[in-house]
Amino acid sequence: MILPIVGYGDPVLRKMADDITPEHPNLKEIIANMYETMYNACGVGLAAPQVGLSIRLFVIDTAPFSDDEDLPTEEQQELKGFKRTFINAKILKEEGELWAFNEGCLSIPDVREDVYRHEKVTIEYYDESFNKKTEVFDGLVARVIQHEYDHIEGILFTDLISSLKKQLIKKKLQNIMDGKSRPDYRMKFSNKKGR
């Protein structure tokens, strides 16, 4: 089932999300719905707070990035095959050079900005079968993980840009809160009347 994506300004996007157990109600259905919602919106990642659930869960499928012909073939292959569910994730280490990439977010449509993130991340998490894993990722996969991880920490990519850039996008952010943004996927806006 395709869920509405929560728009910028909704308090759920600012909460530190809660850990869950394998007995969390309807967990398999929630995960399936999140993938379906992400694909419908042409995203590469989606965190539970973005569908109104303050739980430590996010899903990633970087296949759309694999079409970038500027990337080495090896990285294209890695991106094509990277589909993962992260439950109760905890970043243990961020390392390497900080590098910029133009990021966007399904909860903040029509806003894109360069964000600096570390090139490598070590993360501990549970998969959808609640098997515990500790893995190291780099490049675009690490970036998507860091972006989605921020969501379960109550952080948005717009928090990581300069004050000047924040001023420049202020009107766009207000339009999202007021429901004036028109992405081609279902959204729930924080200030819109009769939501």
Describe what you observe in this structure.
This protein has 195 residues and is of the alpha+beta class. It has one domain: Alpha-Beta Complex (Peptide Deformylase), CATH 3.90.45.10. The strands form 2 sheets. It has a 5-stranded antiparallel sheet, with helices on both faces. Strands 1-7 form a two-stranded parallel sheet. It is globular. The mean pLDDT is 94.
Number of helices: 4
* Helix content percent band: 25-40%
Strand order of the largest sheet: 2-3-4-5-6
Q: Return the CATH class.
A: Alpha Beta
Low-pLDDT segments, ≥5 res = none
Give me the Rg, rounded: 16 Å
Mean pLDDT: 94
Shape: globular
Concise structural overview:
With 195 residues, the protein is of the alpha+beta class. 26% of the residues lie in helices and 31% in strands. It has a single domain, classed as Peptide Deformylase (Alpha-Beta Complex), CATH 3.90.45.10.
